[in-house]
Amino acid sequence: MSIIFIFIGLLFAQEPTPNFEADCNDLSSWIGGIQGIERSKKTYPYMMAECHTNLNYDLIWVKPKKESEDLSFRLMQHLNSKTDEEIDQLKCYAFVIPKVEPVEPENEFDVYDYVFPADVKVYEKNAVSWQLINTEHVESFEQLGELKLKTVTKK
């Protein structure tokens, strides 16, 4: 009987959700546009980061309509110091998708390739915790871009 309970516990056990802003060995951050889709006012600019070392995910922060002028700069500092309360309150989304090193990189910035098809897990940061809000199957870079845009512009 106890074996059944152990099996059921293992069946429903979940991996702990990473702290996407802190758990990457080498988090690269920048301000840019969502790629893979036609550029528009909705696709650009976002504060972004990506991890492809110990974990595989992309981050997108959604700025409030009336942001302070130095918010983007402070975000870059915050990723190192974790001390800015205004940054802590920003909406942030994590897109967990497999990545691999490219066989033949096109340039020094070509450090990883996404693996398609893939089931992308989408997390949203609420205050200090991360919640899984969606899992979506994507077949291409373009579909990944559409998923990102749909997620960050949701009402």
Count up the domains. 1
Strand content: 25-35%
Report the mean per-residue pLDDT as an integer.
79
Question: Poorly predicted ranges (pLDDT <50, ≥5 residues)?
Answer: 4-12
Strand adjacency order, main sheet: 1-2-3-4-7-8
Total number of helical segments?
Answer: 4
Net shape: globular
Return the string of H and E elements.
HEEEHHEEEEEH
Report helical residue fraction.
10-25%
The biggest beta sheet reads:
6 strands, antiparallel
Helix-strand makeup class: alpha+beta
Note the topology:
Blueprint lengths: L1 H11 L15 E5 L13 E6 L5 E6 L8 H11 L3 H4 L2 E6 L2 E2 L12 E2 L3 E9 L2 E10 L2 H12 L3
Antiparallel strand pairs: 1-2, 2-3, 3-4, 4-7, 5-6, 7-8
Protein architecture, described:
It is a single chain. This protein has 155 residues and is an alpha+beta fold. It has one domain (17-152). Helix content is 25%, strand content 30%. It is built from 4 helices and 8 strands. It has helices spanning 2-12, 71-81, 85-88, 141-152; strands at residues 28-32, 46-51, 57-62, 91-96, 99-100, 113-114, 118-126, 129-138. Strands 1-2-3-4-7-8 form a 6-stranded antiparallel β-sheet, with helices on both faces. A two-stranded antiparallel sheet has the order 5-6. Strand 2 and strand 3 form a beta hairpin. The model is unreliable at 4-12 (pLDDT under 50).
